Every structure is written in structure tokens, then in C-alpha cells.
Amino acid sequence: MRIERVEVTAFGPLTSQTLELGQALTVIAGPNESAKSTWHAAIVAALGGRRRGQGKPSKAERRFVELHAPWDGGPWRVGASVRFDDGRLVHVEHDLAGKVACRVIDLTDGRDVSAEFTNDGAVDLMTACGLTRTLLPLTASIAQNDVLAVAADPAQLADVLSRAATGSNGEDTAADAIGLIDAALSRAVGSERAGSTKPLARARADLDAARSQLASARSARRQCDDAAEQLGGLLRQARDTDDELRYAQARAGVERSRRCAADLRQAQSLAELAADAHAGAIERAAAELAAADADLAHAAMPVTATAPATGGRRHTRASGWWAGGAALFAAAAVGLGLYAGGVWRAVGVAAALAALAGAGALARRQRTRAAVTTEVVDSAPWASALSLARGRVVAAEQALAASLTAAGSSDGDDPRRSLARWRAAGGAQEAAAAAAQLAQLVGPGGLPGLESEAARAAEEARAAIAGCDPARLAVTLAVSERELQVLAAAARSSSEQAQRAAGAVDQLLASLPDVAAAEEELASAEANVARLEGLSQLLSTARQLLVDAQQAVHRDLAPQLGAAISRHLATVTAGRYTQALVDPATLDVSVRGDGPWRRAALLSVGTAEQIHLLLRIALVDVLTVGRERCPLIVDDVTVHADADRTHALLELLASVAEHRQVVLFSQEQAVAAWARTQKYATVIALDPLIGA
Amino acid sequence: MLSVGYASVGSMGCRIVHVADVHLDAAFTWAGPELGRARRRAIRDALTAAVALATRERADLITLGGDIYEHERSTSDTGQFLADLLAGAGVPVLIAPGNHDWLGPASLYARQAWPGNVHIFTTASLTPVEVAAGLNVWGAAHLSPANTRPFLDSVVVDRPGINLALFHGAERASLAGQGADKVPHAPFEARQIRAAGFVHALVGHYHRPVDADSYTYPGNPEPLTFGETGERGAVIVDVADDGQIARSRHHVSVGQLTDLTLDVTGLDYTHVVRAAIDQALRGHSGLVRLTLTGEIPPGVDLNPVSLTPPPTGDLAVLVRRGRLRTPQMLDDLAAEHTVRGEFLRRAQLADLDADVRAQVIATGLRALAGERDLEVD
Questions:
Q1: What residues in B contact A554, CB-CB < 8 Å?
Q2: A166 and B340 in contact by Cβ < 8 A?
Q3: Is A545 in contact with B32 (Cβ distance < 8 A)?
Q4: Which helix (H) or strand (E) holds A320?
Q5: Under a CB-based contact definition with an 8 Å cutoff, are residues A45 and A683 in contact?
Q6: Closest CA to A46 of A142, A133, A113, A128
Q7: How far apart are CA A345 and CA B297, in angstroms?
Q8: What does residue A103 show for φ and ψ, rounded to 5 degrees?
Q9: Is this model's pTM higher than 0.80 or not?
Q10: Could you give the angle at the alpha carbon of A560 between the alpha carbons of A557 and A565, nearest 5°?
Q11: Cβ of A550 and B339 within 8 Å?
Q12: Does B5 have pLDDT greater than 60?
């Protein structure tokens, strides 16, 4: 690459000026205040332009604006015509203020080829050389300030080298970049040690908390589900127990209904038996006969001489009394039974009263007979009464015979014998026993009570079996009342247990934590940890790559630079030093002649300046290998050198100019004079700026 | 046979509003807790809108085809919300529990006190409910979260009149269109519907809506994730006296989830990227997920957090990094004989995913440029 022409529209103190540069070495000479440094900056700006990046401008950028914005207004523009090594000629223009109207035009065909040279948003022709506008001041552009800086602190040689080798913004080194990554790792990720308050440790603690929170929420959910599951079991158990009770109660109801019905049937049968009409008629007839006999006996007493009673007769009479009394009392009992039965109440009352009356009369008669056995009475009124009594006896005997006949118990002759046989057969006792059994069966409620009870039991049974499965009911065993009570207690207990469990489940449900929110918290915490781990990995990877790149470049550059410096070292140091060495780790430059290695930083100012120039030339050689040859733009590098060293430096630059364009600014007339002796040198004389 | 008994279906047929896959209480792990809560509120609002639709359109019946809520995340508050909402519907509501809201002892269906107009199917086999004279809806429930047997395999309609099926299941032929992770719960084939004697099946399970001849999947009424397509919502199903079905879909969602992609290639500065994001978001509302793709411009801050615009009243934005790659222009820089060039060369050769590589390069370049903010993830 070769700069043919530089045009300034307005740049610092310069306005509308042009420089035509030579192909090899161009010496631009002028006294102080002739704008040599301004032209130097304008050439650099024409090659690299200004970046269009956002954000706060760097220190160098601010300094550039301060120094080189047009002093007297006008469009802050520079341009240059540049010919590439392949012969292509382009024209580059830079609007340094707006940084928009920057472009590269291929002068052979008029095409805008800016895109080929874009760097950081603006045209940068240095990219064609493998450099950038930020690397140019560290390599091919050697300003007077650089020389002065190295002169003031030779240790900056390594710094310059390091910044150039880094190849970024020209201000920071790879070590600086690694430091920034370390700081970011510490700030944004942090240590993972326990107790750390840095982001990753906090994020992991948050993750643990979120996991715990979700586990707790899910556990509460499971607990609720489990409780509900148990509740389901309890409800089933309660339902089963209740069913068992219900069927047992239904079975018991059915059984009770059956029993009541059977009792009713038996009572009704007993009532019929006790209320037998024949038995009543016979007994009534027998009672009437007994009364008639007594009446007759009473009527016959005044006329009848009764023989003294023998033991046997007495016994017979006594037996007859007891038998007659028993029969009458039995009849009374039947009557009472019928009374208690309700249905036959009227009959019963009559029967009982008649029987009791009969029994009383018989007793009286026995007593009277005993008292009058020895009396003899005979009179006409008595005869009439006796006749009536006899008639009553006959009538009674006939009635008794008729009743016995109706009952099928007559032998056809003597009703008294038939009565005796009927009684011996137990006819009266059967009714009495039935009445007694009935009384016991029906209880105080009587037969109607039993009927009501049976109806109620039937109704209850119907209600109890409603909804029951007939097949299951059929196989349900009858249980005792005690067992029924046990079943009822079990059903009650099951129901209460299920109700308590239902309450507990409802309480658990009401207090369920927000599982979805806990899941989201966890996902968020996981994402945060993943983000920080990713960032850690990212920063660590970038750091490692930078460290490796730095080491590799330094390792690669160091010997090349050492060799490049060594090539011209003897020339520029008048043979005092012949070898140079660049430390790959620190990029410190050391030199030696016949003696030991000396750090360049510790050498004289003049030597340091010379080595600095050699180092810059070496950097340009090394960093642009295989690319366009980058012009070397040098500002007053001989200012501190004596005549011999100046000559040596000029010879060095002349040799460089054999394969690379060199533009040398100098205020020394000797330099201009030397240039005029060189075959391929162009000399441009600058006049002092008027009023500058 | 059960009978709802108070459906007032006139001679003009029956109008049903069918909804499914509401997923109340769903978790939105991609959204974070705050947006997640907003999403759950939106789901409730969508179901409320569906019920309002039934009232507005004078529907005779509401059918809910399962997955109305998610059991494992449900709360009693959700049960009360549902009960109150459905009580106010003014028409019978039939619910066929699905695999997410399966009917169990702890489910809201079992624990919540439901209003009289709500009938929940509780059996694993289809059982009929007479919703009006001559119109039966046969429904069934999932009784566990998985392994529910197909509902249509063993059912034969034995009722005269018009018979509809309501259940939560996966129609086999439509499964492929529902995404690879869709599980075929209670599967069935379309032909089984008519073969069993149903004129139509109102179903749930598929979030992507399907209007087939013999069945209808309404789809989830409120978006559950980004990228959902199809006209989801509530479906009004008009059943004519002769059993003919007419359907119309109604949008009931209250919020939108929009997926946008922004190619940042060539956007050389962070402020330019921000301007492009603002431009991309213009005219959108609801929740927008913006994915950045393309070439990462070196030196541009693509940190999603710093690029996410603050939420406004009707717009919330999630910015994320998609498939990003290293810009071509870095090839020139990689040719440098400098640490930067070497770094780029090594990064390009490193065994890294393209996205990670792009981020590593961006990080390294920012560090080399002296940038302190390196949290480029």
C-alpha cells in the first residue's frame, strides 16, 4: 500500500491543503509551527478514520478531537489516494465530524468499495494491512509523543509491544482484558465457597430454598391426597358398616314383624278358644243347674231329715264343693280373660259374674246345709217353693243337656253325668287356659294393642327394607338386640371417624400452598443458576482462550521481533549492540553486544529511542506479514540523536523504504539535506503557518 | 338414567357451549412467578368469558370436556371459583373430568360443594344424562391421571333420540398434529363415535383445535405457551332436532402470547438493537417473547435483561437469545497476527456450540475492547 496524495478540507489549523507523497521515502521538512505533527495526524486519520461506535469516547479519541478539530470551522474532512500493492488505486474520504460520509471509491471503476474496509462502523484502510486504526499508532505511525514517552520511560517499550500485540483498541493489553474477565467473574459470578454472598452462591442458596419450598408444597399436596384417599376408605367403611347395620335392622324389623304377626295369630286363636260359645253355654247351664240344685236343697230343708253325715258322704260332698267351686272360678277366669281381650268383654263379664255368683251360692248352700241337717220342716208354702225349685232343676238339667248335646258331649241320658264327663275331659280348663295364655300374650294392651303393635312392626319392617337388595336381605342373618346395638355403635363410630377425616381433608385443602407458584419459583431459580453457571463457563472459556492466545502470540512474536530488531541493531547503535531478545512472557526487550544481556529499559535515552524505532519497524513487519505493505509514518525520530546515530537512523529508514513507503517528518535541515541526496527520496518543505 | 331435568331445550334444538383444556392453576415455568400469576388470572378470565358467552348466546347447556384444572396444583380457592362461576351460568353444566383433573377422593370434584346445575360424571364408562326430551349427553370421567381405558370401546347407545358423547380422550388420527409430547390418554378412533350410536362427540385433550365431522376439540381457551396456533376458545355447538350439528368458534382469551424473532445481523450498536426491538414490538400487546437471532455484532450488549423493555399496562416482553452466530466480518480480525486474532482463531476452532462460541467471542472481544460489562449471557 502506498499513499499517493493526502487532502485536507479542514483539519486542525490546516484548510484545503494537499500533499503529494513519493513512492519510497518522503521527507516532509519544516520548522516548528509548520504543522508537521498535524499533517502526520491527518495522514493517519486518512488511513484509519474514526470509529463510529457508541458510548463514551476513549481518552485517545477525546485527545484527537481536541487537537485536530478544525480550528477555524469548516467541514472536518480528510482524504487520500492510495494505491495498493496490486496496482489498484482507491480514494478514501472521511467525514471526521459526522463519521457518516466516509467511503472508499475504487478509482479504476468508480465503485464504492467501503464495505471491504469497514471496521467498527467506519472505513479503515489499515485492515488491508492486517492492522486497524487502533493499532496504527502502536506500529506504523510513530508520533513525536511516542518517542518522548519512551525517552521518559524506556519501560514503556514492553507496554507498546504488548498493546500492539494485543491488537484491540490500542490502549489495553491482553492482560488488561484478562483482568476485566477476572473482575467480571468475581462480580457477576463469585466464589462458590460456603458463606459467599456473590451471585452464584446466592443463586444456589435460592435454588435450594426454592427446591425445599416446592418439596414442601408437593408434600402438603400429597398429604392432602393421602388424607383424602384415607377418607375415601373411611367413607367406604362407614358406608359398609352403615349398610350392615341397615340390613341387620331390616332383618330385625322383618323378624319382629313376623313375631308380632305370629303372636297376633296365636292371640286371635286363643281368644277364639277362650271364647268358645259351647263351653260358655255349658258352664252357664251348669251354673244354673247348680243354682237350681241349691235352690231345691234350700227349699227341701224343712221337710227333709237328713241322716247324719258319714265320713264318706262328707268327703263326697266336700269333693263336690271343691269341684263345683273350681269350675266356677275357672269360668270366672275365662270371663276375666275375655274381658281383658276386649272383643269378648261383655261375654266375659257376664261369665265371670255368673261363675262367681254360682260359687258364692254354692258356698252359702253348703254352709246352710250343714246348719239344717237336723231340722225337719213341712208346710204348704214350702211345698210350693219346693215344686218351683224342682222345676228349676229340671229346666236347668234340660238346658245343660241341650248345651252338652250342642257341644257333642252328651251321652243322651243324664246331663249331670255328661257334665261330669265333659269336665273330666277338660273342656272348661282348655278355655280357661287359653284365656290365661291369651292374657299373658297380649299384656295390658290386650288384643287391640297386639294388633296395633303388629301393624306398627309391619310398617317399620317395610320402611327398613326399602332400598335393600332383596338377595342380600335374604342372606342377612338375624342378630340379637345386643348385636344390633354393637352394629349401631360401630356405624356411628365409622361415620364420626369419616366426618373427622373429611374435616381434616377440607382443612388441608384450604391451606394448600400454591404449587404452581413454587414450581415457577424453582424454574426461575434453576434458570438463574444455569445462567450464572453458563456465564461462569462463558467467561472462563473466554479467559482461557485469551490466555492461550496471549501466550501463543507472545511466544510467536518474541523471536520474530528479536530477530527483526537484531537485523538493524548494530547499524543504529554503531555496533555497540548486535543482538536483541524479546521475552515472550513480559515482552521486555534486552540487547547485548559482546557482553551480557541488558534490558533495553535500562539503557540510555538515545538507545531506547533507537530500539523503539526498530521495535516499531519490526512490529509492522511481523503484524502485516502476507498483507498489504503498510506505510511507515515517522515524526522527528532523530531529534535526540547525535549526527552519527541520525545518519544511521536515516540509513535504516532508507533501507526500509526500499520495500515499504516511509513518510518522515523532520524539523532538521540536515535530514532534508540528506534526503535530497537519496535517489528515491522526495522532499516536501513546509512553511510555518501564518498566525498559527 | 340420570336427568338434569331443567334444560329448556325448545323445538329449535339445543345450543351447547363446549369448553375444554382450560388448565386452571397451570404452572408457567418459562414465565417466572410474577408473570405466572398473571397468566393464571388470565385463564380464569377466559373461562369466565366462556360462561358469559353461554349467557349472551342463550345457550341451553355448557359442557366441559376435562382438564378444567390441574389436580396436583389445585387449591380450594380454584374449587370455589369454579363453583361460583358455574352457579351463575344459569344453565346446566356437565363436566367430564380429564387426566389432569381426574376424579379422585381429593379432587375438587369430590371435595367442593357444587351448585345444583352442575353435574359431574363420575364413572369410567359412559353414562347418559337426559338434558332434554330426546337429547342425551353421555359422559365419563378419568378416575386416575393415567391408564384410563378407552371410553368408546365398549359402549353402545341404547337410548332413542339424539345422543352426544362428552369425554376427555385422544383421537388417534389427530394425535400426530398435537406435538410429540402429547400422550394419548383414553384413545379412540373417529369411526367409533357413530358406530356407538352418537351423533357427535364433544371432547377435550388436544390443545390444538380440531373440528372434525364427528367430534370437536375446542382447544385451550387461553394460551398456555408460545407458538400455539389455531382458533382456540369456546365452541358453540347447535344441535338441530334432526341431530345435525353446526359449530362456531369464539375467542374468549383475554391475553395474547406472541412469538417474535428479531435478526440482529448488521445491527452494530446496542442502541440500534434497542430501536429495532421497539420497532418489532410496535402494535403488539399481551405477552411477547422476542428471540434474538443472527450474527452477534461484536461489542453489542445482547444481555436479555438489559434489552428487555419495562412492562407497560398492556405489554410484557420476554427477550431471549436464540441461535446466534459469529459475524462473518470477524474473519478479517481473525487474520490479525495479534492476541485478538489468535483469540478469534482459537475460539473458532474450539469445541463449542455455535451459540456458545458466538457468546465467547463477544465476551473476549468486549474484554479486549476494555468493556467492563461482560455479562453478555
A1: 339
A2: yes
A3: no
A4: helix A311-341
A5: no
A6: A133
A7: 122
A8: -160, 165
A9: no
A10: 115
A11: yes
A12: no
- For residue A678, the tally of other CB atoms under 10 A from its CB is 18
Chain A CB contacts of B337 below 8 Å: 130, 167, 553, 556-557, 622-625
- Position A156 scores a pLDDT of 75
Q: Which three cell numbers mark A230?
A: 384415607
A118-135 per-position pLDDT tens digit = 887 789 999 899 888 888
User: pLDDT for A279-314, tens place per residue?
Assistant: 778 888 888 888 888 888 887 775 444 444 444 444
Q: What is the dihedral sign for C-alpha A383, A384, A385, A387?
A: positive
The model's pLDDT over B263-297, given as tens digits with 9 standing for 90+, comes to 998 887 788 899 999 999 999 988 999 999 988 77
Percentage helix, strand, coil, to 5, in chain A? 65, 10, 25
- Alpha carbon distances (Å) from A428 to A268, A335, A624, B25, B368: 18, 12, 152, 90, 136
Task: Report the distance separating Cα B319 and Cα B273, nearest Å.
Answer: 12
Rg of the Cα atoms in chain B: 26
HEC assignment per residue over A177-201: HHHHHHHHHHHHHCCCCCCCCCHHH
Residues 6+ apart with CB under 8 A from B91: B7, B54, B55, B59, B60, B61, B62, B117
| Element containing residue B257 per DSSP (H, E) | strand B257-263
Best residue in B122, B368, B375 for a mutation probing chain A (most A CBs within 10 Å): B368
Cell of B148: 384410563
How close A177 gets to chain B, by Cα (Å)? 5
B30 contacts A557? CB cut-off 8 A: no
Minimum-distance CB partner of A166 among B73, B347, B368: B368
DSSP H or E run through A533: helix A515-572
Please give the Cα distance from A187 to A196 (Å, whole number). Answer: 12
A78-90 pLDDT tens trace: 999 999 999 999 9
pLDDT surpassing 70 at residue A55: no
